[in-house]
Write a structure and sequence with these properties.
Shape: globular
Number of domains: 1
Mean pLDDT: 91
Number of helices: 12
Order of helices and strands: HHHHHEEHHHHEEHHH
CATH superfamily: Rhomboid-like
Strand order of the largest sheet: 1-2
Length: 216
């Protein structure tokens, strides 16, 4: 595993998350609490929540998704997956490619907090944590970038093309958010996903045309 912005994010997130498992004060200080962001001016929580997780499974799920999707999105060579696609580094050069990856992750994390902030800015009991929103931004940016790549969901032993997986996953998140009661910040996942999609369209509108081309 080469050292780049992708692996640095994973290393830092795993290290801080493991530390927070045994440090309640650190966990509380890093959680996303919209009420405290608004009323106590603790804006740093908009990002620090991505560094902590509820448990080992939560951490592992996010980091595995970030590792496998992120490494292809960032640095794979041109591969034929229903279309000729190259990673960010090969398309834009190493430095600019890594800049785009970091921007999607960090800005995606911020954007993912928007809907929860609007909903819970005056709710002192609301708390959330985890890198899911930022990871969602990377996943959906990768889907837009490589719509023909195969994806596999845990417990479903078949490959699903990214251009099909993406809309289905967003639909699931929307319905789960409307239903509520899951204890999962589905609105943050949606916010991160929408940002990842928008970012790719901004830097390369042809990717949007390619994505639509799979349906038409």
């Amino acid at each position: 595993m080469s050292i780049n912005v992708h692996t640095i994010i994973i290393i830092i997130t795993v290290a801080v998350s493991l530390s927070a498992f045994n440090n309640r004060n650190l966990l509380e200080r890093f959680m996303y609490i919209p009420y405290r962001v608004k009323h106590n001016k603790e804006g740093v929580r908009l990002l620090t929540h991505t560094l902590i997780h509820a448990d080992y499974m939560h951490l592992a799920f996010n980091m595995f998704a970030l590792y496998f999707l992120g490494k292809y999105f960032l640095s794979f060579d041109c591969i034929h997956w229903g279309g000729l696609d190259c990673g960010l580094e090969e398309t834009y050069g190493k430095a600019q490619g890594q800049f785009h990856f970091l921007a999607i992750y960090v800005l995606g994390a911020l954007f993912a907090t928007l809907i929860p902030y609007i909903r819970h800015q005056d709710n002192s009991s609301y708390r959330s944590l985890g890198a899911s929103g930022a990871v969602s931004a990377i996943i959906f940016a990768s889907i837009m970038w490589n719509p023909g790549m195969p994806l596999r969901i845990i417990f479903i032993p078949i490959d699903i093309p990214a251009y099909i997986f993406g809309p289905l996953y967003l639909a699931y998140e929307w319905f789960a958010d409307k239903r509520g009661g899951t204890g999962i910040a589905h609105d943050a996942h949606i916010g991160g996903a929408l940002f990842g999609i928008a970012y790719v369209l901004i830097i390369n509108i042809d990717k949007g045309k390619e994505f639509l081309g799979y349906f038409f």
